[in-house]
Design a protein that fits this description.
Order of helices and strands: EHHEHEEEEHEEHEHEHEEEHEE
Number of strands: 15
Helix content: 10-25%
Radius of gyration: 17 Å
Strand order of the largest sheet: 3-4-5-2-1-15-14
Distance between the termini: 10 Å
CATH topology: Deoxyribonuclease I, Chain A
Largest sheet: 7 strands, mixed
Number of domains: 1
Number of helices: 8
Strand content: 25-35%
Structural class: alpha+beta
CATH superfamily: Endonuclease/exonuclease/phosphatase
Length: 262
């Protein structure tokens, strides 16, 4: 018995569904699946995507239509569901949903989170930095009281190995020194674990490709999607897989198997 946890930025759940996302989800046998950029409202999801592959969906939708939004699909009923970070600016954008599986002797949270992109300009980059300032102490407080795995689109490639053209991207959002330093702080000072890199230290392991040029065909990608876990839980990770056989969005699903059950 193991636990399969998937993360995927859908770039629109309705769009991904037309490309076979639901059918793939049914085949992949996940226990939980975090999704980001749902780009839908509750009314769009109800009766259509509120349950996928035998898993119930728990969502945090953006107020703005067709924008952001995250979900966590769960095969097992959580003991609690928390949406938002108690930060009005980002809670309006639908960026955080946490499901808890608590039982005597163990507190475990699984989080689906969508970090802002700063690629559209200085204003959104400033918002991205504000988000990093909000999420860091939140995760530290959480780590102090429970085990967790945060999955999602972090919109940061941490090291040179994590993107194809690192030399040409040092001044671009997603690979800025300040963003990379924040990731280093999270993994070194705060002590969280980049689960994928714990299992796979090979180059050219990407989860996102630009739609411009021949990025997908030439594997000119970035690793933007993560499993970030508390150390004791990260130690239970046994297998990783980036699913590349079919494309549902500009991101690929990242699958990690853990040797625990909820």
């Amino acid at each position: 018995m193991g636990f399969r946890l998937v993360t995927l930025n859908l770039n629109g759940i309705r769009s991904a569904a037309t490309k076979g996302f639901v059918e793939w989800a049914e085949q992949t046998q996940a226990d939980c699946m975090g999704v980001q950029e749902v780009k839908a409202q509750a009314v769009d999801v109800a009766g259509r995507f509120d349950r996928v592959a035998g898993m119930d969906g728990h969502f945090h939708f953006a107020e703005k239509k067709g924008y952001s939004g995250v979900g966590m699909y769960t095969r097992h009923a959580p003991s609690d569901v928390i949406t938002g970070l108690r930060c009005p600016e980002f809670d309006a954008e639908g960026r955080y949903v946490e499901v808890r599986f608590d039982k005597p002797g163990r507190k475990l949270s699984l989080i689906s989170c969508y970090f802002p992109s700063g690629s559209s300009g200085e204003e959104r980059q400033a918002a991205k930095y504000r988000f990093l300032e909000v999420i860091y102490p939140h995760l530290m407080a959480l780590k102090g009281e429970r085990e967790f795995i945060l999955v999602g689109d972090i919109n940061i490639a941490h090291k040179e190995i994590d993107l194809k053209n690192w030399k040409g991207n040092q001044k671009n959002s997603g690979f800025l020194p300040e963003e990379r330093a924040w990731m280093t702080r999270l993994l070194e000072e705060a002590g969280l674990c980049d689960v994928f890199r714990r299992l796979n230290d090979r180059p050219e392991q990407y989860t996102w490709w630009s739609n411009r040029g021949q990025a997908w065909a030439k594997n000119v990608g970035w690793r933007l999607d993560y499993h970030l876990a508390t150390p004791a839980t990260a130690a239970h990770a046994v297998r990783e897989h980036i699913y590349l056989e079919r494309r549902f969005s500009d991101h690929a699903p990242l699958v990690v198997d853990y040797d625990f059950t909820v």
